[in-house]
Design a protein that fits this description.
mainly alpha; about 220 residues; 10 helices; single chain
């Protein structure tokens, strides 16, 4: 099968799998990450097929919607790739991207390294910051029935992986526990440049939020 047919099949597969997904982790999230990855990859020497498929399949079964089970996503992705007769080396590379892309509290050491992982990880992290990152954070907070903000609950900046996965703090805490940390965790030059502007947008949002919360504006 030619590359375009493979990518088209991957898009169809992901759309079907995520048809009823939560709004911040649905097909449109995947599409944005895919577009981000394509843009970043133009500035890097990389395997375009691995980048494309890694971006499309990276969130095929997010563990937070499967009782924390991190094995489902890689398994579903592998089954799809084998069905499409993707060679073993490419398949293994994509699975390693899926297994190592997540933030997990910021204390997770990647057990695999490649420029393709760097690109897809940056693309995914860009969708977690800026205007869309803010919208996704509050959408997920509403989905989990979390308060917007509670000044009596301080952000936890030293969570381990399991604490991060089970965290139920107000949505605004998530800015300090993850979103504002991503700018300095970007891998590629393009990713760092885009993240800088989106980070600044979030800082302005927080200033406005606190001013409104305190009745100052």
């Amino acid at each position: 099968m030619d590359n375009q047919g493979l990518i088209s099949n991957a898009i169809l597969f992901v759309k079907q799998e995520l048809e009823n997904a939560e709004g911040g982790h649905d097909w449109f999230h995947i599409e944005r990450v895919y577009k981000n990855a394509l843009a970043i990859s133009k500035e890097e020497v990389c395997d375009q097929t691995v980048v494309q498929l890694g971006a499309l399949l990276h969130d095929i079964a997010d563990s937070k919607f499967h009782n924390g089970d991190e094995s489902i996503g890689p398994l579903k992705a592998r089954q799809f790739l084998e069905k499409e007769n993707v060679d073993a080396m490419t398949t293994d590379h994509i699975i390693k991207i899926i297994e190592n892309i997540s933030f997990k509290g910021g204390n997770f050491e990647k057990k695999f390294a490649s420029i393709e992982l760097d690109i897809v990880q940056d693309a995914d992290r860009l969708d977690a910051i800026g205007a869309i990152g803010i919208a996704r954070a509050f959408n997920y907070g509403g989905f989990k029935n979390r308060p917007l903000y509670n000044p009596n609950i301080a952000p936890n900046l030293h969570m381990n992986k399991e604490e991060y996965k089970s965290n139920e703090a107000p949505t605004l805490n998530h800015f300090y526990e993850k979103l504002l940390l991503l700018k300095d965790k970007m891998n590629t030059t393009s990713g760092k440049q885009i993240a800088q502007e989106r980070h600044h947008y979030m800082e302005n949002f927080l200033s406005q939020f606190y001013a409104e919360w305190d009745g100052e504006k």
